[in-house]
């Protein structure tokens, strides 16, 4: 069995020999998909792999590579579904588990990702990237000792990966091994001297080790390389205050608060410095802010951002073009009512449009376009549940109606069903409606 590998960040494309002569057409589409993937044409690759799957639905490699194409388009939910099928067909493919784990981690499913990375390691125990990814998932789950072991193994297998040294250094900080973290940050600095994170990490460890002068030197460099990093300003201010340079600390606290106005620790630090400089009024104001913000953080619930709101839904939905094409007028005249309804809607007569679309559906109950157009109008009127019911009907009548999946996905997302909405957007993109991938990129990651 032949395999071709092409790295894409930490995803891989694989090419297997497909069944021979009888499936030659499927082979052509599959090879076209591989070629397009290598050229970065992931939309074209996705369509080619879909055709290969249609002609040969039992080939794991087609599902796997379509999953990679979807992941490259940031459609990780859709990618997971394809990886699931690839694994069902070939449960011994380490790359499929690795790639599914990556997509799960992108969806914050770190427990599921950890299981996939572990299975990938069982099948291929010498891949440093899989250990790195499992270490990252373990860190997200606060399993720091397991993460440390994975990062160490990854370095053992690939000592040239600077990012792994940084990740191990951060993990050692979480385990309060600040002395142990210093060599890791230093190693990354030697390998990548323009990366501010390594200087910032080493500076923070030096603060914890009371090496405030050394910390300031590292944080100076971090700020030089990344002048918008509020944490570096905060830690440099803290180091200065520990050296009793209260006057020098205040501008750093000011900058930290400009960049991150809800940093109660910075208000506390600046208030402390102002007190030392006999600005008691300013000190009290800062300490009041520190207490107020800290209490608000303790009492507030998590607020999720990025949901498609009503304005965004209206904007994206209204860009969808209805399928109003001239066709033979049937005896029941449903097409005429449909076309008149579409025209009335464009003139702003939504009530009249609904009446005509209702009549079109009454005359032709299998008229998918009429259900979809009526659903668009209902959504515009704010009747999102009614719109979803019409979209459901349109999809039942035409399961390949890409625009309907797109609109239903937007509506579901706007109503709080992010997973269901993003799966619909994925299906829309899979069926060839390209705007779905822009929505996925903006609202599903």
Structural summary, described in words:
By secondary structure, the chain is mostly helical. Among the domains are: 5-90, Serine Threonine Protein Phosphatase 5, Tetratricopeptide repeat (Alpha Horseshoe), CATH 1.25.40; 310-443, Tetratricopeptide repeat domain (Serine Threonine Protein Phosphatase 5, Tetratricopeptide repeat), CATH 1.25.40.10. It contains 24 helices and 2 strands. It has helices at 24-38, 42-55, 60-72, 76-89, 94-106, 110-123, 128-140, 144-157, 162-174, 178-191, 196-208, 212-225, 230-242, 246-259, 264-276, 280-299, 310-317, 334-346, 350-363, 368-380, 384-397, 402-414, 418-430, 435-443, and strands spanning 5-8, 11-14. Strands 1-2 form a two-stranded antiparallel sheet. Strand 1 (5-8) and strand 2 (11-14) form a beta hairpin. It is flat. Residues 1-10, 17-23 and 298-306 have low confidence and may be disordered.
Which terms would index this structure?
445 residues, mainly alpha, Serine Threonine Protein Phosphatase 5, Tetratricopeptide repeat, 24 helices, 2 strands, 2% strand, disordered N terminus
Q: Count the helices. How many? A: 24
Helix % is over 70%
CATH class of the domain at 310-443: Mainly Alpha
Main beta-sheet strand count, sense and barrel state: 2 strands, antiparallel
Query: Could you give the distance between the termini?
Result: 35 Å
Identify the CATH homologous superfamily of the domain at 310-443.
Tetratricopeptide repeat domain
Structural Rg: 28 Å
How many β-strand stretches? 2
Mean of pLDDT: 88
Beta-strand level of the residues, as a percent range?
under 5%
Low-confidence stretches: 1-10, 17-23, 298-306
CATH topology of the domain at 310-443: Serine Threonine Protein Phosphatase 5, Tetratricopeptide repeat
Order of helices and strands: EEHHHHHHHHHHHHHHHHHHHHHHHH
Structural class: mainly alpha
- Give the overall form: flat
Biggest sheet: strand arrangement: 1-2
The CATH architecture of the domain at 310-443 can be named as: Alpha Horseshoe
GO cellular component, one term: cell outer membrane
GO biological process, one term: receptor-mediated virion attachment to host cell
Organism: Spirosoma profusum
Keywords: Repeat, Signal, TPR repeat
């Amino acid at each position: 069995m032949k395999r071709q590998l092409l790295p894409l960040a930490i995803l891989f494309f694989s090419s297997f020999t497909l069944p021979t002569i009888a499936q030659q057409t499927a082979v052509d589409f599959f090879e076209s998909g591989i070629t397009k993937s290598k050229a970065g044409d992931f939309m074209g690759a996705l369509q080619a792999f879909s055709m290969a799957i249609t002609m040969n639905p039992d080939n794991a490699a087609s599902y796997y590579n379509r999953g990679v194409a979807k992941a490259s388009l940031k459609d990780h939910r859709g990618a997971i579904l394809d990886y699931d099928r690839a694994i069902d067909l070939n449960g011994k493919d380490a790359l499929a588990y690795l790639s599914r784990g990556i997509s799960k981690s992108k969806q914050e499913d770190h427990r599921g990702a950890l299981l996939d990375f572990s299975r990938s390691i069982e099948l291929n125990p010498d891949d440093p990237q899989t250990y790195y990814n499992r270490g990252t998932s373990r860190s997200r789950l606060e399993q720091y000792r397991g993460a440390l072991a994975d990062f160490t193994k990854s370095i053992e297998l690939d000592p040239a990966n600077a990012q792994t040294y940084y990740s191990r250094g951060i993990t050692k900080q979480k385990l309060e091994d600040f002395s142990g973290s210093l060599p890791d940050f230093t190693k990354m600095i030697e390998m990548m001297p323009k990366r501010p994170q390594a200087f910032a990490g080493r500076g923070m460890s030096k603060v914890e080790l009371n090496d405030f002068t050394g910390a300031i030197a590292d944080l100076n460099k971090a700020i030089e390389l990344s002048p918008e990093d509020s944490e570096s300003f905060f830690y440099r201010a803290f180091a200065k205050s520990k050296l009793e340079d209260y006057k020098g600390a205040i501008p750093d606290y000011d900058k930290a608060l400009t960049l991150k106005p809800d940093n109660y620790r910075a208000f506390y630090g600046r208030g402390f410095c102002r007190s030392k400089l006999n600005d008691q009024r300013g000190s009290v104001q800062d300490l009041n802010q520190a207490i107020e913000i800290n209490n608000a953080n303790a009492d507030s619930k998590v607020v999720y951002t990025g949901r498609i709101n009503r304005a965004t839904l209206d904007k994206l939905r209204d860009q969808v073009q209805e399928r109003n094409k001239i066709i033979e007028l049937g005896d029941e005249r449903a097409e005429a009512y449909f076309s008149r309804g579409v025209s009335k809607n464009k003139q702003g007569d939504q009530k009249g449009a609904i009446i005509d679309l209702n009549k079109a559906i009454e005359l032709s109950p299998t008229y998918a376009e009429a259900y979809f157009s009526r659903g668009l109008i209902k959504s515009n009127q704010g009747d999102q549940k009614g719109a979803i019911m019409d979209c459901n009907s349109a999809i039942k009548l035409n399961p390949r109606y890409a625009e309907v999946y797109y609109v239903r996905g937007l509506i579901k997302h706007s109503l709080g069903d992010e997973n269901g909405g993003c799966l619909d957007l994925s299906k829309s993109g899979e069926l060839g409606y390209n705007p779905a991938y822009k929505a996925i990129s903006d609202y599903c990651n």
